[in-house]
Automatic annotation (TrEMBL):
Pfam families: R3H. This is Sperm-associated antigen 7. Residues 46-109 form the R3H domain. GO terms for cellular component: nucleus. It comes from Carlito syrichta. It comes from the Eukaryota. It is found in: Nucleus.
Length: 227
C-alpha cells in the first residue's frame, strides 16, 4: 500500500516553486504591465491638469465671462479641476445627482453665486437673474403688506344697515309661515303646546276635585264632564 501511494505521488507533477524560472518571468511581466498602467494614468492626470489650467486661465482673462460650465467628469477629474480653480483664486461647485452626470461650474470671486442661484442649479434649472429679481420684489412687497396689516390690527367690518331691517319683510313672512306650519301640525297630529298642558290650579283645588270625583264614584253618580 505504501509503495503504491509513493509511486502515485512521484508520478504527479510538482507545483511550481517560487524559484521556478517560468513563475518568476510571469511575475516580472505582470509587474511591468502594472507599472506601465500606473505611468499612463499618471500621465493622463498630468495632461488633464494642464488642459484644465489652460481653460481656467482663458476664463480669467476673458472679461465677458463670469462663470463657466464644464462637461460631466468622473470623480478624479472633478477633484483635479477643483484644485486648479482653488489655486487660481476662483470658486467652483459640482452639480448633478448621478456620478456620471456630475459637472463642475466655476465662478469669478466678484461674481460668486447666491444661495438662490445655487439652488436653481441643484434642481437642474437654468438661472434667470431677471425672473429672480421679480420674484424677490414680489416677496418683499408681500412681506411689507403683512407687516402693515399687523400694525393696523384686525379689520372690523361695520355693515351700512342691519340685515334684520333690510330683510324684515322676508323674516316676517318666514315667521308667519313657520307658525302656520306648527298650527297645522298640532291639528293633524294632536300636538298640544306646552303652555296648554300647564296646570294652573293650586294644590288644594286639585285635591278637592280629586276627593269630589272619588265620592261621586262611590255613590254611583255620573261624573260631570271635564273641561
Amino acid at each position: 500500500m505504501a509503495d503504491l501511494l509513493g509511486s502515485i505521488l512521484s508520478s504527479m507533477e510538482k507545483p511550481p516553486s517560487l524559484g521556478d524560472p517560468e513563475t518568476r518571468r510571469k511575475a516580472r511581466e505582470q509587474a511591468a504591465r502594472l507599472k506601465k498602467l500606473q505611468e499612463q494614468e499618471k500621465q493622463q492626470k498630468v495632461e488633464f491638469r494642464k488642459r484644465m489650467e489652460k481653460e481656467v486661465s482663458d476664463f480669467i482673462q476673458d472679461s465677458g465671462q463670469i462663470k463657466k460650465k464644464f462637461q460631466p467628469m468622473n470623480k478624479i477629474e472633478r477633484s483635479i479641476l477643483h484644485d486648479v480653480v482653488e489655486v487660481a483664486g476662483l470658486t467652483s461647485f459640482s452639480f448633478g445627482e448621478d456620478d456620471e452626470c456630475r459637472y463642475v461650474m466655476i465662478f469669478k470671486k466678484e461674481f460668486a453665486p447666491s444661495d438662490e442661484e445655487l439652488d436653481s442649479y441643484r434642481r437642474g434649472e437654468e438661472w434667470d437673474p431677471q425672473k429672480a429679481e421679480e420674484k424677490r420684489k414680489l416677496k418683499e412687497l408681500a412681506q411689507r403688506q403683512e407687516e402693515e396689516a399687523a400694525q393696523q390690527g384686525p379689520v372690523v367690518v361695520n355693515p351700512a344697515s342691519d340685515y334684520k331691517d333690510k330683510y324684515s319683510h322676508l323674516i316676517g313672512k318666514r315667521a308667519a309661515k313657520d307658525a302656520a306650519h306648527m298650527l297645522q301640525a298640532n291639528k293633524t297630529y294632536g300636538c298640544v303646546p306646552v303652555a296648554n298642558k300647564r296646570d294652573t290650579r293650586s294644590i288644594e283645588e286639585a285635591m278637592n276635585e280629586i276627593r269630589a270625583k272619588k265620592r261621586l264614584r262611590q255613590s254611583g253618580e255620573e261624573l260631570p264632564p271635564t273641561s
